[in-house]
């Protein structure tokens, strides 16, 4: 086992990471537009700063290379050095997706002693991803999924693909112990950084009315992912018609730089333009002030892209109660009736079955959008739950305090990092016991041996004077000609001119 020697001379294991690492505290970066990249950055940083048992290596590509924000304890390498590096040293690699099609294929082709921990925060819909997991994933690898709902989905999809292959005579149906072990570990947060700020100052900073009751939504602004935000505009309109002075604060990364303006237009059309504040592409340092400016966090998610829901967790850490859809990983975060309220969701099974039939050939974005169109959040229940909290300040305060306590007890990095380390410890033990992936290669020499007339056993010195082997499918005349030392291809003279 190859270890890195730390300053105190204790051996440390190598933990590799190849995902983008480009976050900046005072400016919006590429990574801030994607929650999985935020998770990747934060986990890597926490391990590098907290864990003495690992030497953390980040392999950068040219597109996402950065010179700021990376802790000095993280050792930086070029992605181009990855193949040679894993042949020189034993590595445990973390990746933010089911990475067996990339890292798994590289390991299979090199025979490197490498274990993979795939950290899944969004369920992939590509058939290739699950085929690669079955083909290139091994029992000493691990898949870590951020929610119970996400884990159930991945297990179901792997079983479906395995059963389909078995029905066609390829292998057998998936059984316990086959392939990578699957674990459930939630995304962590830094509850010491995500703390309640002064409400008045936060509202002044964001230009939100000081005397209004503020609903906060934080999430990526996009058509394909997250939630239908028109529901929030409709909610504000109805609540204001009922005489409640409510204001909506929406903040998130506007990936296409069009959705913030469209939300403002929709709010103005609904007559609540002055009651809505949209904050697109905000820098990370502003996040705690956004939550602290609010009274209730709301999220009517209906998209399968949302496997966990870190925004709800951040809001709870900042002391906000939550009203959210009863959807996916939200159930793991919100304790209904104690830290917030969950709203029933429904979907149309026949429509979903039709989308499933088309999923193999249409894009993932189209499939996600179609499934969200088949999903509905009970709007009347959503409005009733929100009204209940808006009119009961004591309940809001009680749920907010309970939410922060829950965030600290179950989701702080001090709790989450040891859970990852437990999984990694098991993986290292498997490697130390001699577990390794046997090379899985396509033997081109065998597959194409019948193409040429001969196959030389050595290739050097201009290809002269080397032993040659006749093609196993060469014709009798070719073999006979070879014994005579003559060219087996007859001279047929010049070709006739082409017909016009």
State the gist of this model.
The chain is an alpha/beta fold. It has 18 helices and 18 strands.
For the biggest sheet, the summary is:
8 strands, mixed
How many helices? 18
| DSSP summary, beta strand count | 18
Which runs of at least 5 residues are low in confidence (pLDDT < 50)? 5-11, 463-469, 471-490
Beta content comes to 15-25%
Instruction: Give the mean pLDDT.
Output: 83
Structural class: alpha/beta
Could you give the distance between the termini? 70 Å
Rg to the nearest angstrom?
A: 29 Å
Helix content: 25-40%
What is the overall silhouette? globular
Which features would summarize this protein structure in a list?
about 500 residues, 18 helices, eight-stranded mixed beta sheet, six-stranded parallel beta sheet
Verbal overview:
The protein is an alpha/beta fold and 500 residues long. Helix content is 39%, strand content 16%. The protein is built from 18 helices and 18 strands. Strands 1, 2, 3, 4, 5, 6, 7 and 8 form an eight-stranded mixed beta sheet that branches. It is globular, with a radius of gyration of 29 Å. About 7% of the residues have low confidence.
């Amino acid at each position: 086992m190859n270890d890195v020697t730390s300053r105190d001379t204790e051996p440390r294991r190598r933990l590799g990471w190849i995902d983008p690492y480009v976050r900046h505290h005072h400016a919006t970066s590429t990574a801030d537009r994607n929650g999985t990249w935020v998770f990747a950055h934060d986990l890597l940083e926490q391990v590098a700063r907290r864990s003495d048992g690992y030497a953390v290596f980040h392999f950068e590509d040219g597109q996402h290379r950065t010179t700021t924000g990376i802790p000095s304890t993280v050792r930086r390498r070029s992605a181009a050095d990855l193949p040679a590096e894993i042949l020189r040293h034993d590595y445990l690699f973390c990746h933010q997706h089911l990475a067996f099609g990339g890292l798994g294929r590289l390991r299979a082709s090199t025979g490197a002693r490498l274990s993979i921990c795939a950290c899944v925060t969004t369920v992939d819909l590509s058939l290739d991803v699950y085929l690669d997991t079955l083909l290139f994933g091994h029992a000493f690898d691990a898949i870590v999924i951020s929610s119970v709902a996400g884990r159930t989905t991945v297990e179901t999809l792997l079983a479906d693909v395995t059963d389909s292959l078995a029905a066609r005579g390829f292998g057998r149906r998936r059984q316990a112990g086959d392939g990578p072990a699957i674990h459930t570990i939630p995304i962590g947060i830094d509850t010491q950084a995500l703390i309640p700020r002064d409400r008045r100052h936060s509202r002044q900073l964001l230009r939100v009315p000081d005397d209004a009751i503020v609903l906060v939504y934080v999430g990526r602004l996009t058509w394909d992912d997250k939630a239908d935000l028109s529901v929030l505009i409709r909610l504000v309109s109805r609540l204001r018609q009922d005489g409640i002075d409510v204001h909506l604060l929406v903040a998130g990364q506007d990936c296409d730089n069009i959705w913030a303006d469209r939300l403002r237009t929709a709010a103005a059309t609904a007559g609540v333009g002055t009651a809505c504040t949209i904050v697109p592409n905000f820098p990370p340092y502003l996040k705690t002030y956004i939550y602290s400016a609010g009274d209730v966090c709301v999220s009517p998610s209906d998209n399968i892209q949302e496997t966990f829901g870190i925004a709800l967790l951040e809001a709870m850490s900042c002391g906000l109660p939550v009203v959210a859809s009863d959807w996916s990983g939200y159930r793991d975060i919100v304790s209904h009736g104690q830290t917030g309220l969950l709203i029933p969701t429904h979907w149309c099974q026949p429509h979903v079955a039709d989308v499933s039939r088309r999923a193999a050939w249409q894009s993932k974005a189209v499939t996600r959008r179609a499934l969200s169109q088949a999903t509905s959040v009970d709007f009347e229940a959503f409005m009733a739950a929100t009204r209940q909290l808006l009119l009961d300040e004591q309940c809001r305060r009680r749920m907010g305090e309970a939410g922060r306590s829950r965030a600290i007890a179950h989701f702080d990095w001090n709790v989450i990092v040891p859970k990852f380390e437990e999984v990694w410890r098991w993986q290292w033990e498997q490697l130390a016991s001699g577990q390794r992936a046997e090379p899985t290669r396509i033997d081109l020499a065998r597959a194409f041996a019948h193409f040429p007339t001969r196959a030389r056993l050595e290739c050097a010195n201009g290809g002269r004077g080397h032993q040659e082997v006749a093609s196993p499918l060469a014709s009798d005349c070719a073999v006979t000609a070879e014994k005579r030392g003559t060219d087996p291809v007859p001279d047929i003279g010049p070709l006739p001119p082409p017909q016009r």
